[in-house]
Design a protein that fits this description.
Layout lengths: L12 H12 L4 H12 L5 H14 L4 E4 L2 E4 H14 L1 H12 L4
Antiparallel strand pairs: 1-2
Helix pairs in contact: 1-2, 1-3, 2-3, 4-5
Length: 104
Amino acid sequence: MARGKPPAGVISKRKMVKEAMEKLGDAGPGEIHKYIKDSYGTDMTTAMISSYKSGLKKEAGGGKTALGNIMVGMNDLKAVQDLIAKHGSATLVAMIKLLGKPAV
């Protein structure tokens, strides 16, 4: 039997997982399960959550992770990690703040 769209006003499980990923960042299936259960009262298996999560990541460009509403590539995260190792996190934060200011 083919699955259709959920009735109007009902959010799909896929959308629940997507929202949880946007809200929680790169959370694991267990954290996403708790968020969905608390937010929607829907009980999903962690296997189903993991499947939706993989599909959503693929659609977003493969090896990317959700950080809030921002999709960041794993290479970007590795570059930041390398900069922290080289300069320290406090220096990196100061550089980001400096670069984030509008030019005068």
